[in-house]
């Protein structure tokens, strides 16, 4: 089983930190998964404009293929200006709606205000619902105060919620194998 840990931004470090923690928790599960962290900042992304797959650059083709070949996803996103980053939306626009169908997805997000967690409900979940993903019910939203000035995750409750989310994600992966 291939689990893609997707960092949906090209700036900042908090979502990277969250994905690294989740990768650690996934490695501690009884079920073993092949995990890959994708940081969009490491790719030369092109604006998706409807052209055929083979007309995008090599990095875009690789990103689309990584999405298509994954069996499950953890999507990490910051919340900017009350919205998901354009880079993440651009990647969603690049993949076929069939790519993520009936595949498990967990969500982690970070924002500057406590109210920005609503972006997950109003923007990200509807996109994932359109793709017909199996979205776990317990996403984890973090705030700047959950991190040290060095960018380390320091909040014990967030660690516990990430561990719990990972356990539920594992259950969703197991359920998806029966579809």
From TrEMBL:
Residues 1-143 form the NADPH-dependent FMN reductase-like domain. Pfam families: FMN_red. Keywords: Flavoprotein, FMN, Oxidoreductase. SUPFAM superfamilies: Flavoproteins. The keyword Acetylation does not apply. This is NAD(P)H-dependent oxidoreductase. The keyword Oxidoreductase applies. It comes from Halobacillus amylolyticus.
């Amino acid at each position: 089983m291939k689990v893609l840990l997707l960092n949906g931004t090209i700036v900042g470090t908090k979502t990277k930190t969250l994905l690294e923690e989740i990768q650690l928790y996934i490695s501690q599960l009884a079920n073993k998964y092949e995990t890959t962290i994708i940081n969009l900042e490491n790719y030369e992304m092109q604006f998706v404009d409807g052209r055929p797959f083979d007309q995008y650059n090599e990095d875009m083709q690789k990103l689309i293929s990584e999405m298509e070949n994954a069996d499950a996803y953890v999507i990490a996103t910051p919340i900017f200006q009350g919205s998901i980053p354009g880079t993440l939306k651009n990647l969603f626009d690049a993949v076929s709606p069939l790519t993520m169908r009936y595949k498990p997805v967990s969500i982690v997000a970070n924002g500057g205000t406590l109210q920005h967690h609503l972006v997950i409900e109003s923007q990200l979940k509807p996109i994932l619902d359109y793709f017909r993903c199996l979205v776990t019910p317990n996403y984890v939203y973090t705030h700047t105060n959950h991190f040290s000035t060095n960018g380390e995750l320091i909040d014990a409750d967030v660690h516990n919620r990430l561990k719990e989310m990972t356990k539920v994600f594992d259950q969703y992966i197991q359920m998806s194998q029966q579809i």
